[in-house]
Amino acid sequence: MPADVTVFVPVGMRPLTGGRRVVSACGRTVSEVVADLETNYPGFHESLVEDGRLRRGLTIAVNSVEQPLGLLAKVPERAEVHILPAMAGGVV
Predict the structure, then answer these.
(1) What is the pLDDT of residue 3?
(2) How far apart (Å, rounded) are the C-alpha atoms in residues 56 and 36?
(3) Residues in CB range of 73: below 8 A, 6 or more apart
(4) Fewest beta carbons less than 10 Å away: which of 5, 6, 18, 58?
(5) d(CA 30, CA 47)
(6) pLDDT single digits (tens) 29-77
(7) Strand partners of residue 23
């Protein structure tokens, strides 16, 4: 059975979840979690994936650790998955 995980949704994607900041999903990899999110919240796949890879400017953290493998990263049971948009900044 796929792992139950908690997904933290960034502000820009919250319209897909009806405004919810945190949702549940199932999956043993980030790709499986994204597929489950798409089933329950249509539009997630397109928002997160382009050409079979995580969209440029996004990263995924599992249990507070950024995942360089992106969609292929393993997701343990009861993990926290954070979708992180790139942060821009500089010296003022």
Answers:
(1) 63
(2) 21
(3) 29, 30, 60, 62, 67
(4) 18
(5) 14
(6) 999 999 999 999 999 999 999 999 999 999 999 999 999 999 999 999 9
(7) 7
DSSP-assigned letter for residue 41: S
- Phi/psi for 53 (5° steps) reads -130, 160
Which residue type sits at 90? G
Q: What is the pTM of this model?
A: 0.89
SS3 57: coil
Mode of pairing for the β-strands spanning 58-62 and 22-26:
unpaired
Q: Where are the alpha helices (DSSP H) in 1-92?
A: 30-40, 44-48
Q: In the predicted model, is pLDDT for residue 1 greater than 50?
A: no
Which pLDDT value is given to residue 85?
87
**φ and ψ at residue 33, rounded to 5 degrees:** -65, -45
Measure the CA–CA gap between 29 and 14, rounded to whole angstroms. 22
